[in-house]
Design a protein that fits this description.
The chain is of the alpha+beta class and about 110 residues long. About 45% of the residues lie in helices and about 20% in strands.
């Protein structure tokens, strides 16, 4: 399901609000009737609420395509959740890089 949703968003959904979306995970319920889809936005200028609106707008198309491609008895109800962990990781890496010395210290022998 992860690959299918990612492929649909990258190649089939035409909404420009979802162009910078990357799917980071899918968590299915035990009965397979619900799917939590976690996404991250790499475009720093993109507004997360606008991206969420784009995903909600595309949800019907995504569900229809998932049902057709995977031939499921029940197409899971999809709920999108923003995953800010990648953005926090990039910010943390920048912070750590700013703290490290620019040139390695030479050790005297």
């Amino acid at each position: 399901m992860f690959k299918e949703i990612a492929e649909l968003l990258n190649h089939r959904v035409k909404d420009p609000r979802v162009r910078s979306v990357t799917i980071t995970g899918v968590d299915m319920s035990n009965d397979l009737k619900y799917a939590k889809v976690f996404f991250s936005v790499f475009d720093e200028d993109a507004n997360v609420s606008e991206v969420e609106q784009g995903l909600l707008s595309a949800k019907g198309f995504i569900k229809r395509e998932i049902g057709r491609r995977l031939e499921l008895r029940y197409v899971p109800e999809i709920v999108f959740f923003h995953d800010a962990s990648l953005k926090r990781g990039v910010e943390m890496e920048k912070l750590l890089d700013s703290l490290s010395p620019t040139e390695p210290e030479e050790e005297g022998l």
